[in-house]
Amino acid sequence: MDRSPLRKLQEVQFALVELQLYLDLNPDDQRAVKQYKELTEQLTEAKRQYEKERGPLRQYGNSSSPDRWVWHKTPWPWEIEY
User: Which residue range or ranges hold the Protein CotJB domain (predicted)?
Assistant: First the structure.
């Protein structure tokens, strides 16, 4: 299944939140720590790719997108089809 870039971001972020909760209770689980690090790298790359193709994800100067003023060109969250 081909996922949209936004969907991929959401999935990786969800997995990271779940792993954070798990690691709060199991901090010595090295397999989970490794998976957390891998997902963190995937999230960083997914954000970079999304912003390159579709514009900034964040505001207040935190976006790495060279074109910061495209908010009016992107859909509102309720307009996105998954």
Answer: 6-79
